[in-house]
Amino acid sequence: MKRPIVWCAAAAAVLATLTVPATAAPSIDWAACQPEPGDTPEEIALLPGSECATLKVPIDWNDPAEGTFELAVSRRKAQGQRVGVLVFGPGGPGDSGVDRIRTGMSRFSQRLEDRFDIVSFDPRGVARSNAVKCSAALVARQPSPILKNQRDFDATVDYNRELAADCRENTGPVYDHLDTLQTLRDVDAIRAALGEQQISFHGSSYGTLLGQQYAERYPRRVRALVLESVFDHSAATTGEFLDAQAWAGQDSFDEFVKWCTTATTCALHGQDIHAVWDRLLARAGRGELPDPQRPSYPINAFQLSFVTFRTFYGPDWVKLAGLLAQLDKSAPPTQQPPVPTGLTSFSFVTFCRDFSLPVRDYREYAGHLRRLARDNEDLRYPGQLLAVTTCLGLPKAVNPQRDPKRYDLRTPALLINSLHDPATGYNGAKSVARQFGRDGVLVTYRGWGHGSYTTSPCMEATVDGYLIDRDVPHRGKQCAAVDPTG
């Protein structure tokens, strides 16, 4: 499905800026990936065939004279008739693409491993790529996003600024250049270093924002583009952002309740799950609910909501039902967790550079909390609520939400999303599909979970056929749900 290029003087001028530079790009010196501290014996056994390297890139692409840092990259070479390079864009923000290649290749089908050099990287500020480091004791003090008054609001702003200063000191100058507009330039540096005119790109979750913005800037360097669990960067206001995220989480909770109502394997089968949930939230709000991983210590209402939210990624309904049943019968915690020492990673900085979600004061914030509680019976505290409070008081985003320019891709992008995705809701995927227009096709997995490529043979075959043969599915294509509980 290719389209002719309409030539004109203006188009020629634009395309001239997108050609590969005449100067030789740096090459990548690959070596076999080695075991690292923390690798399990099972992970070490998966290393053969993976290659690792570093690539020097500017700290600030807008001012290369500021210096460079080493970006960690990894790959596995095609095992059969090679199509080209497939770059995997990790999610998060904070996921490691190097780990995906070293030990997580089950993410890709054997067909893709046969036909592509599969390449990924640790985004700037993550893992091996000049990771953001902060004082662990300070990170442990992060306030709950369930703010109760103006004093809590002001304390959160002060905390965020203190944490930013600490992280900047412990991380170095890269800390101030962690937005996706910088990362997409890193991706293009990888492409150039590999000697490729074009790349295929598969972005997952937050990595879909990277894919969208790379394709917008470098449309002629994109052979094929898969956006899985599509992150919508168009929510104009804080309210729109929170409402969309809360809707997705509540939808997944509702699906869990439907399953538990009929499934005898549900540990809460026959019980009023909404009543159980309300009891647990109330106990967490009083500091009387234990952390399921560390029962001596308490968790708050937001942490309970977040733990629950994460089980919807699979989804793992059996696990969640057992967890809630266990907590409902649990004894109160007996102590507070110890204060950690040293440094720890804190990769969420990127989000605050990519999104503008301002809140003037507690009164406005309380209005958001009331609306979320009114409109969402159970998950009234979406995980992304922490995204809003973590960015309060910080400098303005350098890559805020906006309407994208026309993509003008040779091959339309393939967008794939679960109908019941807790983190990147289906409505967001439809929004991004509208932004792509004729340059994108949305395929719907009619099931559950965050991620859909490996969920069903239908989805896998659709993505593989698109990436290998550029076989663009028809608009409106859907794949049937597969029971996540077997």
Automatic annotation (TrEMBL):
Family matches, as InterPro entries: AB_hydrolase_fold, Pept_S33_TAP-like_C, Serine_prot/Carboxylest_S33
Entry keyword Signal: yes
Keywords, sorted A to Z: Hydrolase, Signal
Pfam families (alphabetical): Abhydrolase_4 (PF08386)
UniProt-recorded Gene Ontology molecular function terms: hydrolase activity
Residue ranges annotated for the Peptidase S33 tripeptidyl aminopeptidase-like C-terminal domain, each copy included: 388-479
Superkingdom, taxonomy of origin: Bacteria
Signal peptide bounds: 1-24
Record has Membrane as a keyword: no
Protein family according to the UniProt entry: Belongs to the peptidase S33 family.
Protein name: Pimeloyl-ACP methyl ester carboxylesterase
Organism the protein comes from: Kribbella italica
